[in-house]
Amino acid sequence: MSLFNARTILQTTKVGTAIVAQLQADKVLTKKARCTMTSLLVGFLIENHGLKPSSYEKQCLAESIIEEFPYLKDPEGKGYEAWYMKGANKRPATGYLEERLRYIRKTMLDKEDRNKGKLDAPAEEPPREGTTSSPEEEARMVAWLKDNMEPASKVQEYMALTARQRKNFIGQKKHSLAGILEEFPRILDKDMIAQDFDLVHHPGIADNLFFKWEGLCDSVIAYANFMTPTWKQVLHMQDKVDGTLSTAEKKNLALFLLPVILGGRSKGKRGGRCSLFDSIDAFIDLKPAIINVDNYLDSINAEKRPQPFILALYTTERLSPSQVFLVVERRAIPYPSLIKTVDAAFKAHYVLDINYQPQVKTVWEFLQNVVYELPGIVPPILRDFRAYLVSK
């Protein structure tokens, strides 16, 4: 017999009963309902097991939540990790229940640290075997690439043959981004980031975003309608009606909605939640096509505006940008579509060894874990989102 029954605990209060009814009807939790539900469950836990319940008791309560409400189950792991995950390998326990308990202990006893340790970088898969070029041959090719932009076929060939050497150079972590681009200027040429990603970082998943996004976009839009119904005002798209959008517009809209759904954090060690607008601009900065791109790039403050990010220019329709650029080191690299640019921006983090910027970190983690299926720590808000997408 289970130690807890989450449904029964919630139904002991009027507000909890309303949450159960809402869950049964909608099969998804709003942020407000989830916070209230967490407070009720943690209140019961403290009342019956004290301010420091055992990991077993917290795990049992988390298990009961997904047993009673299976549509909240995350498809990965045990399924309840968004609610509680036991600490391991010097990492603290995480999840909504643990975070609420920690907050209450700090408020009441003022002796618990927040202990928000820095997440490790995602583990990489074994890369594809390198080339048979000698170091001397690779050095000659690197030198040639510094002085030549064509023929394109030769540039592509030499970039492929020096991909392993380039990864090792960047992996030394001795060089700034500017220094990397000085040594390998052709890495920002068309399709070169994607080629390096596929050759020596994560072979076999290069096209995941293109294969998956059309199938996910309707569910992403539906989730935004439920969780953040004000998104049209936030994105200045009040005139958009979902049923009238083309497939291409839906795919673009779903990308614009990711930072609205997932949010982000301010810079700094103890940064709190940043504004939605900061998170949106850190992912895709949408501007009228009349802006001067050169002046825009010159105005970027690298400290306040970490890169890469996407610059999209529109004429009349915000969901159909006329030009899209990947912005790296104050350089604008044109791409043919928004989804292609997002794909390149994601891969640039790996190829150029760039950390996710905090304002949009959860968006990149969503793409990493859900779309490209690369390993990494999954925050609770992302587990909720993933569980919803899988249930559809």
Notes on the structure:
The protein contains 18 helices and four strands. The protein has 392 residues and is mainly α. It has three domains: 6-109, no CATH class; 135-189, no CATH class; 208-391, no CATH class. A four-stranded mixed beta sheet has the order 1-2-3-4. Helix 3 (31-49) packs across helix 5, helix 6 (135-147) runs antiparallel to helix 7 and helix 11 (208-227) crosses helix 13. The chain is globular and about 75 Å long. The two termini are 31 Å apart.
Briefly, what is this?
The protein is mainly α. It has 3 domains: 6-109, no CATH class; 135-189, no CATH class; 208-391, no CATH class. The chain is built from 18 helices and 4 strands.
SSE map:
Blueprint: H1 6-10, H2 14-26, H3 31-49, H4 55-68, H5 96-109, H6 135-147, H7 152-161, H8 163-171, H9 177-183, H10 192-201, H11 208-227, H12 231-234, H13 247-262, H14 276-283, E1 284-288, H15 293-298, E2 309-314, E3 323-328, E4 331-335, H16 338-351, H17 361-371, H18 380-391
Parallel strand pairs: 1-2
Antiparallel strand pairs: 2-3, 3-4
Helix pairs in contact: 3-5, 6-7, 10-16, 11-13, 13-14
Tag the structure with descriptive keywords.
single chain, 6% strand, mainly alpha
Question: What structural class should be given to the helix and strand makeup?
Answer: mainly alpha
Q: Helix count? A: 18
Number of strands: 4
Query: Unreliable runs, pLDDT <50, ≥5 residues?
Result: 110-131
Largest sheet: 4 strands, mixed
In terms of DSSP E residues, the strand content is: 5-15%
Domain count: the total is 3
